[in-house]
Specification:
The protein has helices at about 15-30, 30-45, 50, 80-90, 105-115, 125-135, 140-150, 155-165, 165-170, and strands at about 60, 65, 75-80. With about 180 residues, it is mainly alpha-helical. The protein starts with 16 loop residues before the first helix and ends with a helix.
Length: about 180
């Protein structure tokens, strides 16, 4: 137990960039739609309910407007050039209000299960992995909070603990 009497929260599970790439490669060979959807989840950190609500009109000038699946607050997420171009091509024949990935949350789960290489990988694992990867690569915690749509910085700080589990590995890289 923590000193305040609350039970400690379990750290979210995440997977490495290399594991994500394995999943993306498998999806790319099988279904372009599934590949684009999983890539969007990996490079934006959106929840599964958010990825299935993305409409063509939500992609604007290198940004993705997201209707938050949890707190019902809209937010914007920067898109890196490759993903912006792929989403543009993928949605080229859609009307502005058309959803890019018209499916249910269960369909998203099924797609992740189809390509994963371990049973403990879920759609939400992509979100956790995105957060850890961003922090490990120097993203500011406040920026990550905004991208993930967390109302409290405390919620985002849990990813610092996860990134901290790699302290020994990182410390070992120092050339003494």
């Amino acid at each position: 137990m923590k000193p305040n009497g609350n039970t400690p929260k379990k750290l979210p599970k995440y997977i490495t960039k290399e594991e994500i790439i394995m999943i993306l490669d498998a999806a790319k060979k099988d279904s372009y739609r599934n590949y684009i959807m999983l890539l969007t989840m990996w490079r934006t950190g959106v929840r599964r309910s958010e990825v299935i609500s993305i409409q063509k009109r939500d992609i604007i000038d290198g940004m993705l407007e997201v209707r938050d699946g949890k707190g019902h607050k809209d937010r914007v997420i920067p898109l890196e050039n490759e993903l912006e171009n792929l989403l543009g091509l993928f949605s080229d024949r859609l009307r502005p209000n058309d959803k890019l990935f018209p499916m249910s949350n269960r369909n998203v789960d099924y797609i992740v299960e189809k390509y994963r290489h371990r049973d403990d990988i879920s759609a939400h694992t992509f979100r956790h992995s995105f957060a850890v990867y961003c922090l490990k690569n120097g993203m500011n915690l406040r920026t990550l909070q905004k991208i993930l749509g967390h109302s409290s910085l405390t919620t985002t700080q849990i990813y610092l603990d996860i990134a901290g589990t790699d302290l020994k590995d990182d410390f070992g890289k120092v050339d003494w």
